[in-house]
Amino acid sequence: MSVYLDNAATTAVAPEVVESMIPVLRDSYGNPSSSHAIGRKSRVIIEQSRRAIARHLQCHAKTIYFTSGGTEADNLALRSAVRDLKCQRIITSAAEHSAVIKTAESLARSEGIVLELVNHFRDGTVDLEHLSALLSSGPKTLVSLMHANNEVGVLQDLDRIGTMCKEHGALFHSDTVQTMCHYPFDLSKLPIDFVTCSAHKFHGPKGIGFLYIAEGLNVGGQIEGGSQERAVRAGTESIHSIVGLAKAMEMAYHDLNEHECHIRALKAQMVTGLKSLFSDIRFNGNSDDSSRLYTVLNVSFPPHPKNGMALFLLDLEGVACSGGSACSSGATLGSHVLRALQFHDSERASLRFSFGRYNTEADIDEALVAIEKVFA
Ligand code: PLP
User: What is the pTM of this model?
Assistant: First the structure.
């Protein structure tokens, strides 16, 4: 038995995505920067993909800068805001992904910027009054707040935060790695300067993503040595990965509603099953609520002697889920997100179950049997 419920860490690559990549990998070997016809064919493939992505997000193709994934895109946004756009302060949150927190901390050390953390309410949403108070004074600022938290699924209101940032002359970056291709985006309307995407969170290949940089922002880039990606991100492009990203996005936006309904039903089945197994179960960040990211359920199990082993024992039963920070299935480190949002309880095992396109009702039934066995 094997049940994969760790789709927030990564997803299986869709067979259609694999099929789209193989001919490119095999035949389109020309360097996109070469001036000959074989190279120019590769360039055309990249630019077609970029345009297709931009169409889904209602933005201009030239605002999409391919990167190696979400971590690099987050780094690029924060470092560019400080080094090129002269932000002297970053306001973020203790519950952000490490790609944002560690980069902000590093910029505070190396560039002397001010780093401030916005407060959260008990349910994990950002205290917007606190954000407004922080923004009301201080130097030029970048606000970096993720759309959906990757561990507990709390969603922030990008529109409101972006509007607030514009009112105070601050730049706004959002790590949308967990929501891109799970929710629609209209970047022509959203007041936002930087958006992060990673393909492997929506059945695309690993090692590819992009940063959206709003038109008019003059960014120099952090990796040097070539003029690729309009000199913002040097290095020969991974053409087949870019094609895979575009294909995965096309598939996601083609049946977004069906996908959401399918996953919401699986999540509801899991919640009902868990409630019938345990009377004292908690869903961290109200992750069972329909207003939360529909792909993620963060469960705090009742105190039990096997708590410390829960992830390992479930793995032995064939259930893959996650116990800690993003993308660290099997990690034994505690979660900085659960601590930051005060959901951490040393008596209880907190596990994240995250659902994807290929999960079935039978998967959830099997997972519930395994959970019952482990916590019996
Ligand atoms: N941001 C969030 C919210 C994530 O969940 C992840 C996944 O690990 C990342 C960033 C990093 O993305 P990548 O694995 O593409 O570097």
Answer: 0.95
Identify the DSSP state of 292.
Answer: S
pLDDT of residue 210: 98
262 ligand 1 Cβ < 6 A? no
> How far is 167 from 151, CA to CA, in rounded Å?
30
Annotated catalytic residues are 327
Strand pairing class (296-300; 350-354):
antiparallel
Identify the bridge partners of residue 282 per DSSP, sorted by sequence position. Answer: 300
Amino acid 375: pLDDT: 87
Q: What is the CATH number of the domain that holds 22?
A: 3.40.640.10
The radius of gyration computed from the CA coordinates of the chain, to the nearest angstrom, equals 21
Atom of ligand 1 nearest to the CA of 209: 15
Q: Is the CB of 208 under 6 A from ligand 1?
A: no
Domain stop point among 232, 254, 276: 254
**83-119, pLDDT tens digit by residue?**
999 999 999 999 999 999 999 999 999 999 999 999 9
* Residue after which a domain boundary falls, among 254, 278, 293: 254
User: Is the CB of 69 inside a 6 Å radius of any atom of ligand 1?
Assistant: yes
154 plus 214 within the same structural domain: yes
Residue ranges in the chain modelled with pLDDT below 50: 325-332
pLDDT at 364: 98
The finding on whether 198 has its CB within 6 A of some atom of ligand 1 is: yes
Instruction: Please write the tens of the pLDDT for every residue from 9-18.
Output: 999 999 999 9
Q: Give the chain's domain count.
A: 2
Give DSSP secondary structure letters for 110-140: HH--EEEE--B-TTS-B-HHHHHHHHTSSSS
What's the farthest any 2 CA atoms get from each other in the chain? 68
pLDDT for 28 equals 97
Q: How far does the centroid of ligand 1 lie from the alpha carbon of residue 179, in Å?
A: 11
Ligand 1 centroid, distance to 347 Cα (angstroms): 28
In this predicted structure, what is the pLDDT of residue 332?
47
| Residue 169 domain boundaries | 15-254
**Ligand 1 center–CA 38 separation, angstroms:** 34
Considering the domain architecture, whether residues 49 and 185 belong to the same structural domain is answered as yes
Task: Report the pLDDT value the prediction gives residue 324, as an integer from 0 to 100.
Answer: 56
Helix (H, G, I), strand (E, B) or coil at 222: coil
